[in-house]
Give the backbone structure.
Amino acid sequence: MNQKPDKTNSNEPSNLDFHDEKILKVLSSDGRISISELARRINLSKTPTQARVKRLEAEGFILGYRAMLNPIRMGLDHVAFVEVTLNDTREAALTKFNNEAAKIGEIEQCHMIAGNFDYLLKVRTQSMRAYRQVLGEKISALPYVANTKTFVAMQSVKEV
């Protein structure tokens, strides 16, 4: 993925106008659109449209471009959500957990949660058997994991 510098933590207010918002909307649904077609859709000429896209990338509004793969076609139709509770939530423990969880390919998403548990993971595998192996050998072995609780998705209604 073509990554741009992350400026999303900036405390500065966004300076997006009508055309910038239209550019972002179009690119979020079709990242492969040509600049010419994008310019036509937002009703600007090509040069200012291209300059706006470059600025939006430089300012961190556009983080990159990627192909959206179909996990079902790839045989990855087992989705589980895992609540993870840690036995230590000091900053060093959280950092260690974050770094190690990011290395596990089957974890599609990892969110720190404010609630009765510490993290919510979205895990995608080929089967329940494969998930059980990931849980036992990778997730449960992550630093500071005290316990986990799994919820298996029966159907995906909406994914982005």
About this structure: Residues 1-68 form a domain with the Arc Repressor Mutant, subunit A fold (CATH 1.10.10.10). Residues 53 and 82 are 37 Å apart (CA to CA). The radius of gyration is 20 Å. The longest strand covers residues 78-86.
